[in-house]
Amino acid sequence: MDPSHSVAPSSSSRxxxxxxxxxxxxxxxxxxxxxxxxxxxxxxxxxxxSQQHVLLCEAGTGTGKTLAYLxxxxxxxxxxxxxxxxxxxxxxxxxxxxxxIREVLGIEPRVAVMKGLSNYVCLRRxxxxxxxxxxxRPSVSRALGTIRSWLETTERGDIGExxxxxxxxxxxxxxxxASDTRLGPPCPYYQQCFVTRMRQEAERAQVVVVNHHxxxxxxxxxxPHPGRVLPDYDAVVLDEAHQIEDIATDFFGDRLSSASLxxxxxxxxxxxxxxxxxxxxxxxxxxxPLIRHAHQAASAFWRALTPVxxxxxxxxxxxxxxxxxxxxQAWLALDTAxxxxxxxxxxxxxxxxxNAALAQALELGARRVQATRDGLASIVEGAPGRVTWFxxxxxxxxxxSSPIDLSGVLRDRLFDTVPSVVLTSATLATGAVRPDGSGSxxxxxxxRCLGLExxxxxxxERVIAxxxxxxxxxxxxxxxxxxxxxxxxxxxxxxxxxxxxIELSDGGAFVLTTSIRSMSALFERLRAALPGRPxxxxxxxxxxxxLEQFRASGRAVLVATMSFWEGVDVPGRALRLVVxxxxxxxxxxxxxxxxxxxxxxxxGQSAFAxxxxxxxxxxxxxxxxxxxxxxSDYGVVALxxxxxxxxxxxxxxxxxxxxxxxxxxxxxxxxxxAQVGRG
Length: 679
Known about the structure:
Low-confidence stretches: 1-12, 280-284
Number of domains: 4
Structural class: alpha/beta
Oligomer: single chain
Distance between the termini: 52 Å
CATH architecture of the largest domain: 3-Layer(aba) Sandwich
């Protein structure tokens, strides 16, 4: 049998009997509605887990995919890792979905949530920080008091629980855990450690819920010199799987940020200046000049990179010949300064040998310094199959060497190693779908990117349509009479179209752009054109605060860029108009996008057809997906990019969208609102 052929659900499936119209969920939950798409997906997941193969499953909005993979996972008898895109979904699974399954099925599933280590307070780093001079500053002292009070009651040590402090508070990076700061059993706080407890719970669990960053951090450790963060597992479910190529890219490259370098030097200073160390050894070199020199060298290094990539340019490719002259000198000076700090940490560890915990902490610090030096040298030297890039931010700058092609790594470490892998999302398919819902090339893009084209790898494919009535409750408006997006007149004409649409819908609008420049220009015009109406813009306050204001208003307009195209859920009437400025093609100058495009063209393939168009199709579906979040939602999606009418790729992009009615005529938009109504 063709390994990619889709298998129809079995009528005798145990999962089907549980989730079906006569099952315990239907009997035990008032208002429960058995969904054919959910059943189809659940059966496919059950088979992937029992028959040990890969499942690619696009499940449209409203399918109920969380239950569709959780119920089979909990009943499989296998240890399953469920990896999600966000911590919010992790909490939903643990706090809502698992208790629901427990109540309905009368089972006591062993489920644990693991977050990235930076979500948990490290008691040792906290103790060291409290002994630093910085801790005496009034604002820092107040924050420490808040944290100490919270630590008296918390069971998990998750900083997300500290409601009194913003998640971006500068104290958190100084006191949270990290893979390169953990001592393990020698740590005097090991038994009290929140990360230790989390890992112990995960070792006892059958289903472990993580996020993609933690999953791929763990996968990257399972290399030539095996290490791990997660317990060993038999199967993995990757939710929001359309994100995993970008996330995995970060963890299989080398990366240095100005923030991480500053933390390294600060931690080294605190370790070397501990009162315990100073009393243990009077021969340890005075650390202050070394630390000061390291800070100065780090600042000079980032300054030397600034002319290469001004902050407004985003990520910029660094060619090998960039590492000459002033930049090379700045790198060598930083390396020399770090070497001196590392040597001092090693000497201090030897001097403190009668205190095992202190010596271990100092040795760990020395290893962190050496790892940073090695990683930076690897970035500077470059390697075949990698692209080096730099991005300067207002608060944090990043230098990285990223793999161009992840397919081989993912094939070797994931698909050839883990018996069962389920990849699901509302947006995975980018091609045609057979009438029976199977792929027929719909998953060719994700297969190529993720290493799923290996002969002999058994892959099942399903495309499950959303149960929502897109044809009856949604309209796609794609006008022809706008200038091209690159035209100098585009923003003015687009803003006028958007104003008219907003007046028809009485607000409740997301205006989603593809760049900060477009966002700012449209925001200014709309704010002036819509006096008396709340017009919000991304960046003016936190994302959560913006969404709360938007929901509470009911008639607001929110102008935002790519971070609002997906992962944002506003059900109900508060959101009834979604304006997509233009087709969200990837930025061609982005170093990774450009390098992958060049690699495709070197193989005789079109980068535009095989990379840009499928990437845009997925992002476009995500943007469209903001509109209908429940059966009762309704509204208009407007795509203000007339190129989809004229260019060869337009039909492919439009075909990837849900089956809403379509029009080019503004009067039909007016008629739609009159028909559907405003309430």
